[in-house]
Amino acid sequence: MDLDVFVSAHRAEWDRLDALLGRRRLTGAEADELVTLYQRTATHLSLIQSSAPDPQLTGRLSRLVARARSTVTGTRRASWHDAARFLTRGFPAAVYRARHWWIPTALVSTATAALLGWWIGAHPEVQASLAAPDELRALTRPGGQYETYYSSHPAASFAAQVWTNNAQAAATCLVLGVFLGLPVLWILFQNMLNLGVGIGLMSSAGRLDTFLGLVLPHGLLELTAVFVAAGTGLRLGWTVIDPGPRSRRTALAEEGRAAVGMAIGLALVLFVSGAIEGFVTPSGLPTWARITIGITAELAFLAYVHVLGGRAARAGDTGDLVAAERSATVPTAA
Fold it and tell me: Is 143 helix (H, G, I), strand (E, B) or coil?
């Protein structure tokens, strides 16, 4: 595309749109003209971005389109309706759509943690490479560090700390997925290695039941949230490689916006798991009661995703912004 010719052909339309946006009141005909010019300018912007990107011109048209969009659609404020829509449609739909990524991620990761636990538990020489015998006994003995960890701080501050750390880990998986998913694999391995070490050391001490009784109440929901974040991050990385029928820019924008929404939703899920870890795990409840609470929270989340998310996904919800809030685009050549 010859950019100079294109600008000469359409400059008058852009100037006219700019002039209309500067008026405080418009007639009916002028309002119709503004809408038409807004749609044309949005198309011009897409063409320039895809065919002949020019930073100065792109910046001018982006500002012009943003002003026109605000004038045409009006100022929109977030409301409780938006929050309700996000929780009942957007977030569960995004998690449901990503299930083909995070469910295999969960299965492979869990198997990896189990294998690492078996390997560490069955090989004393591996345990000796992790810590000195006295340190290992301090970790695994009754009343040792593995048990007192969950009651080492006041429940409220401990729950807040756990929630913050886990939410940051989930957000990191989502954000770093764009780097072909490689950082996500490393974060996953680190988490599974930590879990595998605990399984291996406690099983070698004959106290695996105690360890699982401490981990399962909060760990089921917490790890599910991590697996969802990791699976979504891996999908975002694959989008860089294979965007499908969409342009790479459009695909990354759509999947990236959905990932940001998932970060917010997963923060809420991790808030629940953090509360369980802070208040239920170290409580005096019987082990069966604590595990029942954890299983109930996990099943509730899975039902939420399957029922609400499946229904919203089948209705066309992707977890992205609604169509009216997305940037204008033009079809791309196959």
Answer: coil
Tokens 């045409």 belong to 72
State both tokens at 27: 């007639």
Q: Which two tokens stand for residue 301?
A: 């989340």
pLDDT at 79: 64
- For residue 286, give the DSSP letter: -
pLDDT tens figures, 300-314: 999 999 999 999 999
Rg, Å, the chain Cα set? 26
Backbone angles phi, psi at 211, to 5 degrees: -60, -45
Q: Are 281 and 158 in contact (CB under 8 A)?
A: no
Task: Tell me the whole-structure pTM to 2 decimals.
Answer: 0.73
pLDDT at 1: 63
Inter-residue contact 176 to 184 (CB < 8 Å): yes
CA separation (Å) from 101 to 19, 229, 243? 49, 10, 16
User: For 320, which DSSP code?
Assistant: S
Q: Measuring CA to CA, which residue among 290, 292, 271, 267 is closest to residue 280?
A: 290
b/e 25-49 (16+ beta carbons within 10 angstroms → b) = eeeeeeeeebeebbeebbebbbebb
CA-to-CA distance for 42 and 20, rounded, in angstroms?
16
DSSP letters for 106-125: HHHHHHHHHHHHHHHHH-HH
> What single-letter DSSP state applies at residue 283?
S
Q: Is the dihedral of CA 55, 59, 61, 62 positive or negative?
A: positive
